[in-house]
Design brief:
five-stranded mixed sheet; 4 helices; alpha/beta; 5 strands; 102 residues; Glutaredoxin
């Protein structure tokens, strides 16, 4: 999973299908979600790009997207938000949503 910075964010979400997960080191639920999505990123390699954005280090990205709860994952298709998950999401729920978008 690629680390997303404010500078890299616009280019990353312009990919055909990209998932950005917003988290923070102090968030225990975030660690579980990031781990599940890490596994999913290997499974869907070449079809979906996965990135993680630490809101403590990159607050501007989360603020611009109105991310108020952690963890949050946003799915983008060519720069446009198409799906948002707030709170802990399972790998299976994300897999199902992404399969519909592929």
């Amino acid at each position: 999973m690629k680390e997303i910075t404010e500078e890299a964010f616009p280019g990353f979400i312009s990919l055909p299908l990209a998932v950005v997960t917003f988290s923070s080191p102090w968030c225990t639920s975030c660690k579980k979600v990031v781990s599940a999505l890490d596994d999913l990123s290997r499974e869907l390699e070449g079809q979906v790009s996965f990135g993680a954005c630490d809101i403590s280090a990159q607050p501007g990205v989360a603020s611009s997207l109105k991310v108020f709860s952690l963890p949050s994952s946003i799915v983008f298709r060519s720069g446009v938000e198409v799906k948002r998950f707030t709170g802990p999401v399972t790998g299976q729920a994300m897999r199902d949503a992404l399969k519909e978008l592929l």
